[in-house]
Amino acid sequence: MKLICIGRNYTKHIEELKNEKPTDPVVFLKPDTAILLKKQPFFIPDFSDDVHHEVEILVKINKVGKHIDRKFAHKYYDEIGLGIDFTARDLQSQLKEKGLPWEKAKAFDGAAVVGKWLPKTNFKNVDNIQFKLLKNNVVVQDGNTNLMLWKIDELIEYVSKYFTLKIGDIIFTGTPAGVGKVVANDKLNGYIENIELFSITVK
Fold it and tell me: How far is CA 65 from CA 51, 108, 121, 167, 174, in A?
C-alpha cells in the first residue's frame, strides 16, 4: 500500500507559499510507515521546529489499474476520506533550496493522518465536497473540491500513467490555503461537511 500525494492543487495555497503554479500535478509519495496509528497523538519530530498541518480530501483505490482513462476513473474508488499531510516546513525549505527530494520533510513516521472513510454514494458530486480543519476549535482551513486545479478523476488518470494503482492505495488530493504551524497540546479536528472524520492531539 502506498500514499500518493498531490502538491499545489489549490491556487490560494500556491500563493500563500509563494510557489509557481504548475503545468502538471506535483506528485510525491509517502510510505505506509508515515500513517499515524489510530488513537495515537502526533509527536512533533525533533528535527523540525516548524511542522505545518495540511488538511486534504483522500481517495482510497478499490481495484488495480494502470493507464486509467479519466472517464473510467470513477470506477476505481468508492470511499472518500479526510487526512493531514504533516510537513516539516523548515526542513522542506532547506531541501528545496538544494534541489533535493522532499521526503524527509513529508514522509517521516506519523506524517500522514488517515481519518474515517465515507461511502462515495454519500455525495451528489465528488467535485463539490466541503471540508475543513479546526485547530483548538477555530477553523484554520476551509476548502472545497470544486477549487482543485485537477479534480479527483483527473488525478487518477494522471498518476496511473506513472504508478500502477493497487487496492488500498490512498491518494492525498492536495491542501487548500490556511496551512500553519502546530505546537504541543494543539487539538486538530477534521470535518467533511458536518461529519468529524478525525481528532488528533499534538505532543
Answer: 34, 27, 21, 9, 21
Whether the per-residue pLDDT at 14 is higher than 60: the answer is: no
Cβ(141)–Cβ(132) below 8 Å: yes
- The pLDDT, as a whole number, for residue 4 is 98
Query: How far is Cα 115 from Cα 96, in angstroms, rounded to an integer?
Result: 29
Q: How far apart are CA 2 and CA 142, in angstroms?
A: 26
Which grid cell is 185?
497540546
Report if pTM > 0.85.
yes
Whether residue 19 is predicted with pLDDT greater than 70 in this model: the reply is no
Q: Walk me through the domains of the chain, giving residue ranges and CATH numbers.
A: 3-201 (3.90.850.10)
75 phi and psi, to 5 degrees?
A: -80, -10
* Beta bridge partner(s), residue 166: none
Grid cell in block for residue 166: 493497487
Cβ atoms < 10 Å from Cβ of 176 = 25
Contacts of 135 (CB under 8 A, 6+ apart): 53, 180, 182, 186, 187, 188
CA end-to-end span of the chain, whole Å?
27
